[in-house]
Amino acid sequence: MKTSQKLLPVKIILLGALIAGTLACGYSAKTMPAAAGTMPTVAQLAPASTTAGGAAFTLTVNGTNFSSNAVVNLNGTAQTSNTTFVSGNQLMVAVPAAAIATSGTVSVTVTNPGSPGTGMYGSGGTLAETSSPMDFTIH
Fold this sequence. Notes:
Elements: H1 3-24, E1 41-46, E2 49-50, E3 57-64, E4 71-74, E5 77-78, E6 83-87, E7 90-95, E8 104-112, E9 129-130, E10 134-138
Parallel strand pairs: 2-10
Antiparallel strand pairs: 1-3, 3-7, 4-5, 4-8, 6-7, 8-9, 8-10
């Protein structure tokens, strides 16, 4: 038997071990955890209150760190189609009459949506961040 024929089984075993070791070491797509996003803050609502049963109106939300795709939330419900970005310090939201039909307090928050990762292994993404609430009074 030739020397090259004797080495063939050894080469096959080594190749198999190399492939198994590569797969076992985790050579696959891994997703890195997203980083913290930018936390918005709500400083002022204008108007500060309204009358129950009134007409629809525009609420101005003043604060800081609003992203261009930030969303105003009324009692935890995102007003995605009603929110307008004015600046990093101001958003406007169209409040429907149905939202102020009865007296009470509405919690107003702002959410900066997260972003998906685009770097190697999905890195570079950010988490969504929501401000502390500010109460809006309906008399």
